[in-house]
Design a protein that fits this description.
The protein starts with a helix and ends with a strand. The chain is elongated, with a radius of gyration of 18 Å. The chain has helices at residues 3-6, 12-27, 61-76, 102-108; strands at 32-42, 45-54, 86-92, 112-117, 120-129, 133-138, 144-149, 155-158. A hairpin with a 2-residue loop joins strand 4 and strand 5. The protein has two domains: 3-92, 2-Layer Sandwich (GMP Synthetase, Chain A, domain 3), CATH 3.30.300; 102-158, Roll (SH3 type barrels). The chain is built from four helices and eight strands. It is α+β, with helices and mostly antiparallel strands. Helix 2 (12-27) packs across helix 3.
C-alpha cells in the first residue's frame, strides 16, 4: 500500500503521529534503526510493517520481538488514530534491500555492494558517498577506487556471496 493508500486509514496528521511514535520507540532501543514503515491491506485488515536495521550482527527473532513489544506499547497509546484493528509486523530490512537513500548508503559503508549500470555489474567495498556519487574499492589483489554517479539508472544493492 502506498502512502496515499495509507490515507484510507489515517489522516495525514494521524499517519505522521503514528510514524513519529514508531521511530521514537525504535530509536529508544539501543542499536536499532527504523528503515521503512510500510502499510498494506491483507485479508481486509491494515498490516503495519516496521523494517529495522542494527549495526552489529544480523537481525534475529529476539530482535524483532524486542522492537515489536516497544512499538506495540507506544501504538497502544494511539488506539484512537486507528479506525479498526491492525496487525503489527516487525522485520529485518532484508539482505537484498536496494541501497537508495543517504541512510541506506550510511548503513552500507564498509560493506560489499553490487552496482548494476549501463557499463555492467561491478562489486566492491563502499568507501564513501555524497549526494551526487559514491566510491567503492574494487579488486582484491590490486584494489582500485571507482567513483560512480548516483542516479536513477544505477541499481545498488548488497553483494551476496554464495
Amino acid at each position: 500500500m502506498s502512502a496515499t493508500d495509507a490515507a484510507a486509514f489515517f489522516s495525514p496528521e494521524g499517519r505522521e503521529k503514528v510514524e513519529k511514535a514508531i521511530r521514537s520507540a525504535v530509536d529508544g532501543l539501543s542499536g536499532y534503526e527504523t528503515v521503512e514503515i510500510r502499510y498494506t491491506k491483507e485479508y481486509g485488515k491494515l498490516n503495519l510493517t516496521v523494517f529495522i536495521w542494527k549495526a552489529e550482527d544480523d537481525i534475529t527473532l529476539d530482535d524483532c520481538e524486542t522492537v515489536h513489544n516497544a512499538v506495540s506499547d507506544v501504538l497502544d497509546g494511539l488506539d484512537d488514530l486507528f479506525p479498526d484493528d491492525y496487525v503489527l509486523n516487525v522485520s529485518s530490512s532484508g539482505l537484498d534491500r536496494p541501497v537508495v537513500s543517504d541512510d541506506d548508503f550510511r548503513r552500507a559503508l564498509g560493506t560489499e555492494i553490487e552496482v548494476c549500470s549501463k557499463e555492467g555489474k561491478i562489486h566492491g567495498i563502499l568507501k564513501e558517498y555524497s549526494a551526487q556519487d559514491f566510491t567503492i574499492v574494487t579488486g582484491d589483489k590490486n584494489p582500485k577506487d571507482k567513483t560512480i554517479s548516483r542516479n536513477n539508472k544505477t541499481k545498488v544493492q548488497p553483494y551476496i556471496r554464495f
